[in-house]
Design a protein that fits this description.
Elements: E1 7-12, H1 18-32, E2 35-40, E3 44-46, E4 49-51, E5 57-60, E6 67-71, E7 100-102, E8 108-110, E9 112-116, H2 124-128, E10 138-139, E11 149-150, E12 175-177, E13 184-187, E14 190-192, E15 198-200, E16 205-209, E17 212-215, E18 220-222, E19 225-229, E20 232-235, E21 245-250, E22 269-272, E23 275-277, E24 284-287, E25 296-299, E26 302-303, E27 333-336, E28 350-351, H3 365-369
Parallel strand pairs: 1-2, 2-5, 3-6, 4-7, 5-8, 6-9, 7-12, 8-13, 9-14, 12-15, 13-16, 14-17, 15-18, 16-19, 17-20, 18-21, 19-22, 20-23, 21-24, 22-25, 23-26, 25-27, 27-28
Antiparallel strand pairs: 10-11
Length: 371
């Protein structure tokens, strides 16, 4: 007997709610095991989504005009619409306040913009919301007491971009994946934000094919297995003093040191045939590992002239840790066939002669993801 996987198709138009379609998808999956495709017409959908239905597909109906899903929660501010949820980010809430949180396996998205407006502009929904008196929580940047910063008062004017400046900037993900979000595939999509834009737990596996990733500080981060395949990467920074872009911050294996057998912990991040753009010259770094065992590989990378800082790799997130080794701080850092031949890189970055890692893994999307 051949099992048939049934598929339900729903259609969302501007002014309608994607969450209503998600509710229907949950119902039919619970009742019949039926998988759902949600077709979304061009427009802006100000909604916070949780993708908890296995095999769900979100497909924008136009590649030239992708549907935008956007929300505005960010670290350090407690909006009344959150109810009793404490806005800390990380595993305690929505994995860095993600506009879209994926918790189910086999998620597919195409022609969708995932955005968190928190570090970009004041949205209509945010302007209509209000903050508790404790709105300006002290955000701890280190483990030492008293070393955090007090967040400034958010403006209420719709469209205000003052929130994109460094004083306001904090963690605010556009899309995050939990440990149960296996075999995700996003094609011709965009993720847009400033700091901590795309996150994944250990156990998540994500194929980001084509499209655009735009952000600034450590904006692709986490312990997930990730392949960014032939995407355009845009440094969302300005000439404001100290505004820099660290594209990736990996900690493959989570908070535990790596197992010698990569198959037991999953891989880290592979950036394959990507192109980097920036409005500011020399202020872009390929990686700033989150843990010393964070595995990051950049293969066949190109960029606009002058964009990349010659050093291109940074130890800023680990140099104050007790296990910091200045001689070989991040041994799982690799480049292959970079535009500049990897000239000027730190000595601890391995410049490969062949598209194969020391453990024999070939640098291709399918080999990386095991698909």
């Amino acid at each position: 007997m051949i099992a048939l996987i049934l598929s339900l198709v729903l259609h969302v138009h501007p002014g309608e709610c994607i969450n209503a379609a998600l509710d229907s998808a949950r119902g039919v999956y619970a009742a019949k095991g039926e998988r759902t495709t949600i077709l979304i017409e061009p427009g802006t959908y100000q909604e916070e989504l949780t993708i908890d239905v296995p095999g769900l597909k979100l497909k924008g109906t136009s590649r030239k005009q992708p549907a935008k899903i956007t929300w505005y929660y960010g670290h350090g501010y407690q909006y009344r619409s959150m109810g009793g949820t404490i806005n800390y980010g990380g595993s305690r809430t929505r994995r860095w306040n993600a506009s879209v949180l994926v918790t189910a396996p086999d998620f597919y998205a195409e022609n969708i913009i995932f955005e968190n407006s928190f570090n970009l502009y004041v949205s209509e929904k945010e302007a209509q919301d209000s903050l508790y008196e404790v709105q300006r929580d002290k955000v701890q940047s280190t483990k030492e007491k008293g070393k955090g910063k007090v967040m400034p008062v958010r403006p209420k004017e719709v469209g205000s971009t003052i929130v994109s400046t460094k004083a306001y900037r904090e963690r605010a993900a556009a899309i995050s994946f939990t440990e149960t979000a296996r075999n995700a595939h996003l094609k011709n999509c965009q993720a847009i934000g400033k700091q901590d834009v795309l996150y994944g737990d250990q156990g998540a596996s994500i194929w980001w094919e084509g499209g655009v990733l735009s952000g600034g500080v450590d904006f692709i981060f986490g312990a997930m297995t990730l392949c960014v395949d032939r995407a355009t990467i845009i440094a969302n920074i300005t000439d404001e003093k100290g505004d820099k872009c660290y594209i990736s911050a990996g900690r493959s294996g989570g908070d535990q040191e790596p197992n010698p057998d990569p198959s037991l912990k999953g891989r880290g991040m592979l950036f394959y045939k990507c192109h980097i753009q920036s409005p500011v010259a020399g202020q872009v770094w390929l990686a700033r590992p989150w843990r010393w065992w964070g595995e990051t590989v950049w293969a066949y990378t190109t960029w606009d002239e002058g964009v990349l800082n010659p050093e291109a790799w940074n130890t800023g997130l680990i140099k104050k840790r007790d296990d910091f080794n200045p001689e070989n701080p991040c041994p799982y850092s690799y480049e292959y066939k970079s535009q500049d031949g990897s000239a000027g890189r730190p000595k601890w970055v391995s410049v490969l002669r062949k598209p194969i890692l020391p453990d024999g893994t070939r640098l291709t999307p399918k080999a990386w993801l095991g698909r």
